[in-house]
């Protein structure tokens, strides 16, 4: 019963919630995705949206925050992986040296 009164009280605003396809998002595309989101929110994409839908149309997304957080996380993991790789290499070298030392001790009589 209140529908006609509600429709007459304010202009109708259309909105869409579009979820990105997670299978299409890849880490190697981070820079391109960030620039595409920026263009949609305040660049040429927004101008095309104004021309196509309405001059009052607005586009907002939370993807820019997600992409920024992912970029920081990916940048912080690089040094951690480097430290882990060098640590694993050091441990492997120590194990090989110890094994060589033990083999040398066992064969000392043969070598002397």
UniProtKB/TrEMBL annotation:
Keywords: Membrane, Transmembrane, Transmembrane helix. This is ABC transporter permease. It comes from the Bacteria. It comes from Streptomyces coelicoflavus. The chain crosses the membrane at residues 77-99.
């Amino acid at each position: 019963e209140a529908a006609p009164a509600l429709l007459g009280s304010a202009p109708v605003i259309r909105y869409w919630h579009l979820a990105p396809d997670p299978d299409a998002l890849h880490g190697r595309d981070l820079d391109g995705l960030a620039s595409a989101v920026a263009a949609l929110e305040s660049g040429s994409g927004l101008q095309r949206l104004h021309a196509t839908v309405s001059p009052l149309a607005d586009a907002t997304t939370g993807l820019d925050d997600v992409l920024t957080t992912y970029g920081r996380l990916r940048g912080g993991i690089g040094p951690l992986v480097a430290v882990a790789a060098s640590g694993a290499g050091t441990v492997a070298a120590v194990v090989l040296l110890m094994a060589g030392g033990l083999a040398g001790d066992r064969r000392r009589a043969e070598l002397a």
